[in-house]
Write a structure and sequence with these properties.
This protein has 115 residues and is an alpha+beta fold. It has a 5-stranded antiparallel sheet with strand order 1-5-4-3-2. It is elongated.
Length: 115
Amino acid sequence: MKACLECGEKIIGREDKKFCSDGCRNAYNNKINKDSNNYMRNINNRLRKNYRILSSLNTEGKSKTTKTKLLSLGFDFDFFTNILKTKTGNTYYFLYDQGYMLLENDFYMLVKKDI
């Protein structure tokens, strides 16, 4: 007899089934996939917020904005997903496919990476 991984009930049906119902399968996967703690959840929330801000300001794929504008929208410069250093010495900070580079006088170039 095979038991459901979520509730332990007997499984009826195909030999390779792991759950007795869709509800148990969903509950099991939700437990496994949820952020393991508040620290991870908070970081992911900040990354999502930064991404939304860049996306809203950079609808054309390339634009400029100011540090003041980014900060007023709640952008947090400490949170990004990767850094790209170009051959010409420019440094771009990315949140997934949305990036930014510091220009002069607290202006920022916003770019979108083609994926």
